[in-house]
Design brief:
324 residues, alpha/beta, 6-stranded parallel beta sheet, two-stranded antiparallel ribbon, 13 helices, 8 strands, 38% helix
Length: 324
C-alpha cells in the first residue's frame, strides 16, 4: 500500500484471493494502515460443488454496489480462469502457437485449465447469485468461450449491472469485440480488463509466441474506443511492475522492452492517446470497482483521492510518460 501511494495510485482490484488474504486485509485496515481502496475477487474452485460453497460463504456480504462505510475494503465478486498464459504458450487458441515469431509450434493450441462446460455452468451459478465475476482469458478461443458463457447466462437470467469482466483479453477476434459491445449495451457486462504492460515487460516473449499476424491484434485499444467499449487497465502484478505510469505509457507507445522483433511488433494502429490511456487507469477502472461515483475523477462530492504528477501528461513527449 505504501508503494502504491508513492506511485500516485489510490485503488486496486485484487483478483483471486483466499480467506487468509481477506483476513490480512481486514487486519491491516483495522490497524489504520490501508490507505488504498481494495476491491477483492474471491478465487473460484474447479468444480460445481466448490462454486456453490463459495456462493454460500461470500454472497451474503459481496455487494460491491453498496458502500462499506469508508470504501477501503470491498468484497467485489469472483475470479475465474479458463486458460493459461501467453508467455508459456498455454493459452487456448483457435490456431497453433508461433515461436520465435515466424516458426509454428505445431499441434500446440494451448488448452483450457478447467473443463469448459464446468466453467460455463459456474458462470451461470455466479450470475444467478447476483455476483460480479471476471475471467482470466488470454487466447482467442478462451475469450470466445468466456463471452459466449456470459451471453448464455445473461440471456437466461438478465441480471443487469453486474459488470462481468474479461481479464487480459489479449487477442479478441472481431466477433468477440462485437459481442462485448452488445453485452455491455444490453446487460452492462463483458468489460475488458487488459494489461497494457504485457506489451512492454514481457512484450518480446509475447511477440515471439503470438507471431506477426496475431501480435497486431494484441490489446486492440483503438478498436475498443471506436466501438465505445471502455476498458479497465491493470498490471497483473507481479507478472509486470504495478505502477500505473507504465500502463499509461505502454498504451500509447506499444513498445517492447528489448526490441527483439523490432520496437513495435504490435504495430501502432491500436495505440491510443494519453487521455484515453489515463481514463483506463482512472474513471474506467473505477467503474469496474463499482466506484465511479466516488473515485476516478476530480468532482465535487467524490473522495479526495488525488495524485499529483511532476509533469503534464497531456503535453509531454510519449517517452516521458514512463518516467513520471
Amino acid at each position: 500500500a505504501k508503494e502504491f501511494s508513492k506511485e500516485g495510485m489510490t485503488g486496486l482490484k485484487d483478483p483471486g484471493i483466499y480467506q487468509e488474504t481477506w483476513k490480512a486485509y481486514q487486519e491491516v485496515l483495522a490497524d489504520g494502515e490501508l490507505p488504498v481502496r481494495v476491491f477483492a475477487l474471491w478465487r473460484s474452485g474447479p468444480s460445481l460443488a466448490s462454486a456453490q460453497e463459495l456462493i454460500d460463504r461470500v454472497a451474503p456480504f459481496t455487494r460491491p454496489y453498496i458502500t462499506t462505510g469508508d470504501d477501503h475494503l470491498i468484497s467485489g465478486g469472483i475470479k475465474l480462469m479458463i486458460d493459461g498464459s501467453g508467455g508459456a504458450r498455454t493459452a487456448w487458441l483457435h490456431e497453433d502457437w508461433n515461436k520465435n515469431a515466424t516458426e509454428v509450434d505445431t499441434g500446440n493450441r494451448g488448452y483450457p485449465v478447467i473443463d469448459p462446460d464446468v466453467l460455463r455452468e459456474q458462470v451461470r451459478m455466479y450470475n444467478d447469485a447476483g455476483l460480479h465475476m471476471s475471467i482470466h482469458s488470454i487466447g482467442d478461443r478462451a475469450i470466445d468461450w468466456t463471452l459466449d458463457s456470459y451471453a448464455a447466462a445473461l440471456e437466461a437470467n438478465p441480471r443487469k449491472g453486474l459488470r462481468h469482466g474479461v481479464i487480459h483479453v489479449n487477442i479478441p477476434a472481431d466477433r468477440a469485440i462485437d459481442l462485448m459491445a452488445e453485452l455491455e449495451q444490453k446487460y452492462d457486462s463483458a468489460y475488458p480488463e487488459p494489461s497494457a504492460t504485457f506489451m512492454w515487460w514481457i512484450g518480446d516473449t509475447y511477440a515471439g509466441n503470438f507471431g506477426p499476424e496475431r501480435a497486431l491484434r494484441l490489446n486492440p485499444f483503438q478498436t475498443f474506443k471506436n466501438k465505445n467499449i471502455p476498458w479497465a487497465n491493470g498490471s497483473d502484478f507481479d507478472v509486470t511492475p504495478f505502477p500505473a505510469r507504465y500502463g499509461i505509457w505502454a498504451s500509447v507507445a506499444r513498445k517492447t522492452l528489448l526490441g527483439v522483433y523490432g520496437d513495435h511488433p504490435y504495430g501502432m494502429e491500436e495505440a491510443v492517446g494519453v487521455r484515453d490511456a489515463l481514463r483506463s487507469h482512472t474513471i474506467w477502472a473505477a467503474r469496474q470497482m463499482f466506484m465511479e461515483n466516488k473515485i476516478g475523477s476530480l468532482e465535487i462530492g467524490k473522495y479526495a483521492d488525488i495524485a499529483v504528477w511532476d509533469k503534464d501528461l497531456y503535453t509531454v513527449a510519449t517517452e516521458e510518460l514512463e518516467e513520471l
